[in-house]
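user: can you give me the structure for this one chain? tokens are fine.
assistant: on it. calling the predictor now.
[tool input]
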Amino acid sequence: MAALNYTGVSHIVFHLLGIPGLEDQHVWISIPFFISYVTALLGNSLLIFIIVTKRSLHEPMYLFLCMLAGADIVLSTCIVPQALAIFWFHAGEISLDRCITQVFFLSSTFIYESGILLVMAFDRYIAICCPLRYTTVFTRTLIGKIGVTLFLRSCCTVFPVIFLLKRLTFCKSNILPNTACKHFGLAQLSCDDIRVNIWNEFLVLMSSLVIDIVLIFISYVLILRAVFYLPSQDARHKALNTCGSHVCVIILFYVPGIFSVLAQRFGNHISPHIHVLLANVYILAPPMLNPIIYGIKTKQIRDQVIHVFFTNQKRTC
């Protein structure tokens, strides 16, 4: 359907194009999308199963990791099924309500994950800098309250977006050159003044993601300072090794997202398909790679994964 410009009618149905300019390559592009999604579902589901069923892993670090794995499943599910429907069946039609719902879940889940990474950084700080207080600080009651607080923070932060988008009249076009609905991309199709939407997006970034990044950085500065005061090299190596997985996940989560935001704001000369691919990388990569990173670098989880598959193999024999 062709885009309709300035008709005075507010569109209630939109059309997602997928990867603009690469429509003839959609079938091939769908392969890494499908592989990443299946890997994310299997890897994170296995991680949740192991942590929930093994009492030895009912420790704060692993419980937070369980929350992260659940958020990864939701984050990838917000994008990939819709993208695969576009790639395989050209099913890019989406209603305004579904589009706004997708914006809400995508944004809130991203903020929720950012909050979990912040709490995990604080967890490592307490474990290394105040090890004797670790078990008394992170009780199961507190962990539950932290999970609920992060959930409420993400929902309350993104909730105004629903009303800010609902008030707009979408009369410019009904074509979205993307694989999913995004707040700013949808707002740009409006004929109304979207300065409130722009300022809201800025405030959301500053009040959640930027603050989280700053606090994570401060936590690791304090961790490094404490590690350098440890008496032996083995103790320093062991302390840093416990943070290795978390640092990898932080880099994987924030760096592609930052590049995508910078490309959207200042990369006007960059091709549209590059913008869309970058936006998808920061959503596809963390859910797929997080369970692999923790499975490889965390001995307790690695041993449990081996035990699960080895036990199953023995039973079949």
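assistant: here you go. The longest strand covers residues 13-16. Residues 96-129 form the longest helix (34 residues).
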